Amino acid sequence: MDIARGIGDFLTLKRNFHTLRGQDLRDWQRSRCNELVRFAVSASPLYRRLYAGRDLENFEELPTIDKAVATEGFDDLNTAGLHRSEVEAFALGMEASGDQLRYLRGPDGRDFVIGMSSGTSGSRGLVVTERAISEGLPFVFAARSGLPIRLLPWRIVFMLRVFSKAFQDINAPLIRLDYVNTMTPVQTILDKVGRMRAKILMAPPSMLRILADHAPSMPSLRLLVSYAEVLEEADEAAIRSAFDLPLIQIYQASEGPIGSACRLGSLHINEDLVYVELLDGEGRPVTEPGQKARRMLVTNLYNRVQPLIRYELNDLVELGEPCPCGSGFRTIRRVIGRADDVLWFASAEGGRQYVFPDLVSRWIISASGLVSDYAIAQAGDDSLELRLSVTRDEAQAKALADVLASLRAGLERHGCLVPAIRFAGPVELPPPGMKRKRFVSIARKGT
Ligand SMILES: [Zn+2]
After folding, report:
1. pTM confidence score
2. How far away, in angstroms, is 325 Cα from ligand 1 center?
3. CATH of the domain at 436
4. What distance in angstroms lies between residue 331's CA and the mean position of ligand 1's atoms?
5. 147 CA distance to ligand 1 middle (Å)
6. Residue 388 DSSP SS3
7. Is residue 383 part of a domain?
8. 301: in domain
9. In which domain, by residue range, is 384 found?
10. CA-to-CA distance for 202 and 205, rounded, in angstroms?
11. pLDDT digits over 349-380, tens only?
12. For the chain, how many structural domains are there in total?
């Protein structure tokens, strides 16, 4: 690995975070986007077709792409001559053999790191990163992780559902990062944290929630980092109070490092690594703090092997206030959920009314202090299935009645015709290796 280049990247990322702002930042992003578009048209048959006859300088008018386009058009989209069948076979072979530390050698002799995302939607996504870029990751991680310098050397236990070479690479002189599969038994995780005197635990919130019951067994920990799943308010509160430690978020999608926490704990968009467009239901830019975006388009500014330009990410976020840390990078107040999580109901005034998942969460949690977990599944406009776990079995009936009343009242206030709500029992754990999903729309409805 080229340490000098890594340190150069680290310093550039630090400087960008503190100096790029306002119109300068927008101009800088615009010129990077335009350059990427020109490159994509010259090197990717898919973009050449997609942008034919378009004004390439008019970035906001260019067609968007999504996971289906990137997956089905993989061969034409990538600029390294890679074929989907080969890359997928390689990724599956790594999974099957347990040897996940190999590089894929491309036709032009370059090495690539292959990541495979299962995704809750079921379609398998492939993300290709050049080895040289992946090897710079420890420095990107150091510059943007939000991990305080005073905790150096960072000894980190990093819990992942799937492993990829890209993560193994995060092992530099002052960073030791040990990977633990999320299917590892709890006792083994506790042993690992104890043995390496880990200061930092990075895990999806559903895992942090499980480990919260064992917080006293991990006294070396100084910081918790949540990533990979939506950190809901109820989970956040439960995790914070069990560990009594700071909890920060990293917002990492397979498609790029979307955001990281600053020293004050605000989640900033990595404006110099990804260009993020937040849009409302009518396609207008979301610019006001507190406003929720219905659509999120991401352009990865550095991946040229698999250019992702105006890529529709299936996430719902709420824009935050400018941060007192002084950075001009936008903040995300909350990741509300996935776009699939939005529930739809018949409106009392005719037509249909959508409800954001965070609102439904609040109706449920605020109804009863005995709720320990919940899940909602929607099969149609007029029916809803509720799962509910409570802290005390004998309180089930009372908690359920309170939650149902609160849900009905909330939906009514929101202008929805209240659907039939069926209680389906306590929350079930997802099958091993699957993401937990609190909101499930069985019949996916259009927007
Ligand atoms: Zn900040």
Report:
1. 0.77
2. 4
3. 3.30.300.30
4. 8
5. 13
6. strand
7. yes
8. no
9. 342-441
10. 9
11. 888 777 877 778 878 877 887 887 888 888 77
12. 1
